[in-house]
Design goal:
This is NIF system FeS cluster assembly NifU N-terminal domain-containing protein. The protein is an alpha+beta fold. The protein contains 4 helices and 5 strands. Helix 2 crosses helix 3. The N terminus is likely disordered.
Length: 128
């Protein structure tokens, strides 16, 4: 995925995977008949309209940064959280992801999940 000024410039494989194929982003019957696996509408929505894209000041003592990459497919994700030191709750979250549509969508969903939650609750989230 290549973006400039908020516009998608390069994402040729996503339409073949069922992302953005119909009026609301769902894959049609032809895609299902062809054996193309379509993404859930929520994944398509977070890909087409990612939430919380950006970066926080790395020098802010209340900001934590995680960076992860997948060498097999080339995805790189940076997720950041801002924690209120008094309450221990995550008050804001953002991400920058360079990778496929599902990586962008999952980063967007993750930032939505963690906002407003205490750290001890967020630490129980599992990838299952």
């Amino acid at each position: 995925m290549l973006r400039a000024g908020g516009r998608r410039l390069l994402a040729p494989g996503l339409r073949r995977l069922g992302l953005g194929t119909g009026a609301s982003g769902e894959a049609g019957p032809a895609a299902a008949a062809a054996g193309v696996r379509a993404y859930h509408e929520r994944v398509v929505d977070h890909y087409n309209n990612p939430r919380n894209v950006g970066s926080f000041d790395k020098d802010d003592p209340n900001v934590g940064t995680g960076l992860v990459g997948a060498p097999a497919c080339g995805d790189v994700m940076k997720l950041q959280i801002r924690v209120d030191e008094n309450s221990g709750k995550i008050v804001d979250a953002c991400f920058k992801t360079f990778g496929c549509g599902s990586a962008i969508a999952s980063s967007s969903v993750a930032t939505e999940w963690v906002k407003g939650k205490p750290m001890d609750e967020v630490l129980t989230i599992k990838n299952t």
